[in-house]
Amino acid sequence: MLETDSRAKDKTVIGYIPFQVAKNKTYELHYQPNVYKNDKKADEIIVKINTKNFKDDQQQIKDAMNAYVQTVFFGKDDTKYMALVANDANKDKAQMKGVFIKNMGSELDEQLSDEQTNQIYEAFERANREKGSVTLKVDTVLPDSAVVEVTPKVLFLDDMYDEIEKLKDQFIEDNRGKYSNHDAALKGWYVYMAKNIGEVFKNTDAQTSEDSYKIKPQKEGNKWKVDSQKSTVNYDCEGLLSDMTGGY
Questions:
Q1: Angle, helices 114-131/182-202, rounded to nearest 10 degrees
Q2: For every one of its 248 residues, what pLDDT tens digit does the chain have, with 9 covering 90 and above?
Q3: What is the pTM of this model?
């Protein structure tokens, strides 16, 4: 049952109420106005609906969301991106890379050059592209918006702890007595990691996230735009971005 509300005289409200329906089926929508005239309740309003001629955008929305994920998150070339997605792919890719570098730790950006951090990110993206995937489910479709449930299967940094410790032990063994102070040794470790962490990514299996995220693309002309802006009110998109960059 829908909840009731009231409106002041001469005030109106316009919006959408989504219902789960099947194609080529007929339905009746019953609406009981909560108003009285001469102590008699207003008659029930019945709206008959036939979905036979309804436009079903579910596949287009799913294709748009998949094109966004494949292009931005996995670094693939999806032929449907330009036709269906309104986002600036390069801008969203840059945001994703920034989140990944942050997830790897603040010292990474301090100790390495842009070229070296790019090397690490590209190795991570490559491994995620080879092993990762997403499951998409269109939850709600409205004329100018939709809700798509996204469940990622990707690499998580927590699963790499043992492999990184092995890499660190190997660095110590290979460079024993080489560095005169801690700062130099730390710098050397990060350079070594940048060169070799790709093997850690290769040796890590993708895992299905414990969470699914409800992403809400909006219609812009003939395309769909994913709200990729990082903010506390855009919790699901931020959570998905976190999972896609290692899970922190």
A1: 20
A2: 455 666 677 777 777 777 777 878 888 888 887 777 777 788 888 988 888 877 888 999 999 999 999 999 999 999 999 999 999 999 999 999 999 998 888 777 788 889 999 999 999 999 999 999 999 999 999 889 999 999 999 999 999 999 999 999 999 999 988 988 988 998 899 899 999 999 999 999 999 999 999 999 999 999 999 988 877 678 899 999 999 999 86
A3: 0.82
Q: What residue type is assigned to position 161 of the chain?
A: Y
- Dihedral in degrees, nearest 10, Cα atoms 17, 23, 26, 27: -30
Handedness of CA 108, 111, 113, 115 (dihedral sign): negative
Whats the size of the chain, residue-wise?
Answer: 248
Amino acid occupying residue 190: Y
Query: Do residues 23 and 56 lie in contact, with contact meaning Cβ atoms separated by under 8 Å?
Result: yes
What is the per-residue DSSP string for 1-29? -PPP----TT------------TT-EEEE
- Between the alpha carbon of residue 172 and those of residues 112, 158, 178, 186, 240, the distances in Å are 19, 22, 9, 11, 36
